[in-house]
Specification:
Layout: H1 2-16, H2 31-50, H3 67-72, H4 86-100, H5 111-138, H6 147-175, H7 180-198, H8 212-224, H9 229-233, H10 243-260, E1 263-270, E2 277-283, H11 290-313, H12 320-325, E3 328-331, E4 334-337, H13 342-345, H14 355-379, H15 384-393, E5 396-397, H16 405-437, H17 442-468, H18 470-475
Antiparallel strand pairs: 1-2, 1-5, 3-4
Helix pairs in contact: 1-5, 2-6, 2-7, 4-5, 5-6, 7-17, 10-17, 11-14, 14-16, 15-16, 16-17
Transmembrane segments: 35-56, 68-98, 119-137, 143-167, 174-195, 207-224, 236-259, 284-309, 321-346, 358-379, 415-433, 439-459
Family: Belongs to the SecY/SEC61-alpha family.
InterPro entries: SecY/SEC61-alpha, SecY_CS, SecY_dom_sf
Length: 479
């Protein structure tokens, strides 16, 4: 398998030389310069998210993706950011699985192989971007004015994908701070949160602003005049900003922040220096947010499949078996699933929510998230065996145990297994509760925002420390 993977790299290597890339800066940039380039990348991405695609028909398209997943992937419908970071994320996940499963033989510790990995990642992202752009046009999700318009839309999305890839490459190469993918996710979700909290604009047919805080001010104004209806209506609204959503956003953000900072310490010692001991921390939120993203996407795809089943075969709602699978009613406000059908439980927060939906939604998210967490840990190099290998390669061992990967892996297995299940359970429950409570940016988006903010805070402290003590940077091999 390894030789096959190596041959694949050798075959595509001539192509990788033509993949566009950003060179590293000749010398380490100051914090001010890196902040400038980071701000520039954010500005370009925001401009792309408000620039409409040329050649797009004014007919409102129907996108087969939920708003929550769109926010996570940095997607803004009908703009140059239509694909967002989807090509990069999909390419990254597939490539990591192929590398960690040894289907592609790349040593990420070798600088030359690391460069090939980065080039292959960009090449796959460009290919996925092109394929996704063509799929959006041919499936009718992006409706062009004519055939030429369709070609122009594909070209625009391909160029936009290359720009996003290069901006991510620029930031990760040391011109900016952190990761471009994380930065674009953060910008997209925070923009959505800001709109849900502060937008002064009103939706068609409403006199109350869209944002929760302006809506509260307007509702109080009407309440003083004797109209209490508006004040009661903004307490909780399904799929719209509300006071409940605002309070839940703050409360869950603090809970996630607390959980993200919790760690389990594994005592280790250096083999060469007996008596020198310290701890290797394993985060309580061990699997991060990827399993819940897979969970949300799985639930959404099943819901879309059931919706198509209803649309094609059961619009009359006369077949008992199909009614159990997919029963719904088309109204002026959209599709309303029947509470006694499976489609109801695979709809992301339906309008007619009840206690049964809340219970099933939480249990389903928690169970699927744990399953995907276990799968991801074994695919992404996070298993006990992988952690043991890293400890031994670092010249460390666990006191009282032989410095053998198998022995250490057996010791770590109970910790890794427990953290995998607990972290998967936590993110599943928080994401489900966030969706039900109307958290701004969605439950998954909130977890992502907190994680990325912590990463950037830690990175900023590290960079500040390196500027004060330049020798520390050389000592840690960060140059």
């Amino acid at each position: 398998m390894a030789s096959t993977g190596r041959r694949f790299i050798d075959v595509v290597e001539p192509i990788l030389r033509y993949v566009p890339t950003v060179p590293r800066p000749r010398e380490a940039l100051s914090m001010g310069s890196r902040l400038f380039w980071t701000f520039l990348a954010v500005t370009v991405y925001l401009l792309m998210s408000i620039t409409p695609l040329y050649g797009l028909s004014p007919v409102t398209p129907s996108f087969f993706i939920s708003p929550a997943i769109a926010a996570i992937l940095g997607i803004t419908f009908g703009t140059l950011a239509q694909l967002g970071i989807t090509p990069l994320v999909v390419a990254g996940i597939i490539l990591e699985i192929l590398v960690f499963s040894d289907m592609i033989n790349i040593d990420l510790e070798d600088p030359e192989d690391q460069a090939k990995f980065n080039a292959l990642l960009k090449l796959l992202a460009i290919v996925f971007g092109l394929l996704e752009a063509v799929a959006l046009v041919t499936s009718g999700q992006l409706i062009p004015v004519n055939a030429l318009g369709g070609v122009l839309i594909v070209i625009q999305l391909l160029v936009a994908t290359i720009i996003i890839i290069l901006m991510d490459d620029m930031i990760s190469k040391g011109w900016g701070l952190g990761s471009g993918i994380s930065l674009f996710i953060l910008v997209t979700i925070v923009k959505q949160m800001f709109a849900m909290a502060f937008s002064p604009f009103t939706l068609p047919g409403s006199v109350i602003p869209y944002g929760a805080i302006p809506a509260l001010a307007a509702a109080i104004y009407y309440a003083i005049g004797g109209k209490m209806t508006y004040l009661m209506s903004i307490l909780y609204q399904v799929n719209l900003p509300s006071l409940t959503g605002l309070i839940a956003t703050i409360a869950l953000a603090l809970i996630v922040l607390y959980l993200e900072l919790m760690e389990v310490s594994i005592p280790v010692a250096l083999v060469q220096y007996r008596g020198y001991r310290y701890s290797v921390p394993l985060k309580l939120m061990y699997v991060s947010v990827l399993p819940i993203i897979f969970t949300a996407y799985t639930v959404y795809l099943i819901g879309e499949g059931l919706t198509l089943l209803w649309s094609a075969y059961n619009r009359a709602d006369t077949n008992p078996f199909l009614n159990w699978l997919a029963c719904a009613h088309m109204t002026s406000v959209g599709l309303i699933p029947c509470p006694n059908s499976l489609l109801y439980y695979f709809t992301v927060v339906p309008r007619n929510i009840d206690a049964a939906y809340i219970a099933v939604h939480i249990i389903m998210y928690a169970a699927l998230s744990v399953i995907f967490a276990i799968v991801w840990v074994n695919l992404a190099g996070l298993s006990a065996e992988d952690q043991a290998k890293y400890i031994v390669q670092g010249g460390m061992h666990i006191p009282g145990f032989r410095p053998s990967p198998k022995v250490i892996a057996k010791f770590l297995d109970r910790y890794v297994r427990m953290l995998t299940i607990i972290s998967g359970l936590i993110v599943g429950v928080i994401a489900a509760l966030g969706d039900i409570a109307g958290v701004f940016g969605g439950g998954i988006g909130l977890i992502l925002v907190v994680e990325i903010v912590i990463q950037y805070y830690t990175l900023a402290l590290q960079e500040q420390l390196f500027e004060i003590y330049p020798g520390l940077k050389r000592l840690l091999g960060k140059e």
